[in-house]
Amino acid sequence: MASGTTQPVREWWDDICTQCGACCYRRDRVAGELVVHKDLPCRFLDTETKLCTTYDTRFKECAECRQVTLVHALFSRYLPDDCGYVEKFRFWKRRGKPEAADHRG
Ligand code: SF4
Ligand code: SF4
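That is the input. Now the predicted structure with iron/sulfur cluster docked in place:
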């Protein structure tokens, strides 16, 4: 997240993540399909809870860790279809489906 982003905006953005954990595993594209290697998690991922064990300092601790941005939400081929950002922003994928749930309480 860019510096200067206010806390409520950061919290709103982070809350879109459904914490499925998929982006914390090695991923590849094979024959046009996303493959999530569940046997290759990030070393900081708690695979039981699917939570990051170094969340507040993850970008310092993990060279591969990337903030999901709006561009990723819209276009990344490495996020699964059930990623909260994909469901929220790729409106063209949900034509005919109910509105994506707001994951905040
Ligand atoms: S450091 Fe990043 S990639 Fe690794 S578990 Fe945490 S959020 Fe996921
Ligand atoms: S794939 Fe999307 S919903 Fe799942 S953990 Fe990553 S950002 Fe969150």
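The two ends are 22 Å apart (CA to CA).
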